[in-house]
Amino acid sequence: MLLRNRSIKFDRFLRVDQKLNILWLHSSSETEIERITRIINDHPFPDKPLHPTLRSLIPPTALSTHFVQNVLGRLFAAHSNGLKAYEFFQYSLLSNQYVPSSDAFEKTLHILTRMRYFDKAWELIERIKQTHHSLLTPKSMSIMLSRIAKFQSYEDTLEAFGKMEKEIFSGSKFGTDEFNVLLRAFCTQRQMKEARSVFNKLHSRFSPNTKTMNILLLGFKESGDVTAIELFYHEMVRRGFKPNNVTYNIRIDAYCKKRCFGDAMRLFEEMERVNCFPTVETITTLIHGAGMARNISKAKQLFNEISTRGLKPDTGAYNALLSSIVRSRDMSSAAALFEKMEKNNIEHDNVTYHTMFLGLIRSKGIDGVSELYQRMIEKNFLPMTRTVVMLMKFFCESRRVDLGLDLWRYLMKKGHCPHSHALDLLVTGLCSRGRVQEAFECSKQMLERGRHMSELAFQMLERFLVQMGELDQLRELEHMAKKLKILLPPSKECTITM
Fold first, then answer.
1. Which of 167, 240, 280, 403 is the most exposed place for a label (fewest CB within 10 A)?
2. Which domain holds residue 428?
């Protein structure tokens, strides 16, 4: 009965949205993208198939490249149920007028592989091979191989590479670009033993280039081993490869992260001596390094050098300076730079907001954070998972669970399904303050959207519901969770790094 009531509520919501459908036909605005994203996220999974809902709301003739890409982008950022996103992309492929873009295909592939639905991912690749072969690129191969390297074995990754070569990309001769993709799959997962094994095994078949060596160098950097970086750098030079600005950027970043700022500056000077001209990325990395070394005057000097060198500072450069200022705990200067970005039409991205929130949490507490939070909401900005979790944790620990609940509702309204760790924090905060009914509703929303609750959140809510005698509500959650688990096996998604 409860599940039937939920479907009836959704049907009413759908009828209201159908009245707005004529507006959609003439617009792919942010409002329409948000509306369709919300409908997909809110659709009761797995009680009803999504396809009929999409057909009633989006005529195939009205699909556009911009619209499909942006809906999939929202679903990806929102950690939505991957099978819903897949069904939406499959629906778009039914239209003869719609030509899928590589971006839409890659986003769908990324969503599926992130949730470890490799059978569905291979199914998608096979279909695209038959209908839109040009969308199969080194980037789509990289998405697939990187996730297989992360979640499966070394042998599975090599087997997938072989399948790509012999079956998926048949007719195309694999060369250095494809070899680089395979190496990158291991390097991005910091599996350097496996990366070296692949290099030693296959470098005679695929001629390495400077990009190959930079990928391996980047892998050593991600592993945090400066000695290994320098040893491999000298091996690279001995093999006859000429370092470029990417090579220097990687080495500079490695020293900055180890707080060896003097060594990073030495490399920067060497780079200029050999006429390997620094990029905005090079200087941005050094600004970060200066901030980590608590050398704020040098960070500002480097930032000012960007313009004097004829380069244009971007959001990344501003964020690097902002981070350096925040590290020095000068929140007045940080706020001034935040305003300057807006004045100079430099976009505030998630890193900008995350950095500011981090500084305000440490210095001004709940009042400062609340003020920026309200400003972010007014701008309709959607924070990424890391920021959502950080804010949820801070609100609940600051006894402002009302703000945590407000953030949850804002994200739901935007069609965003927060990460389960955010739900853990909110359920804990609500239950500890006796607001068990609201914790139940938030948990139910998560399950309705086809996303698993963690054992931690479920057990806590179970304890409080039993104490209150709300056994019907507990049984409803148990039924939804069990049904979802059968149709959608839980996957260990990315761990939140605070």
1. 240
2. 404-498
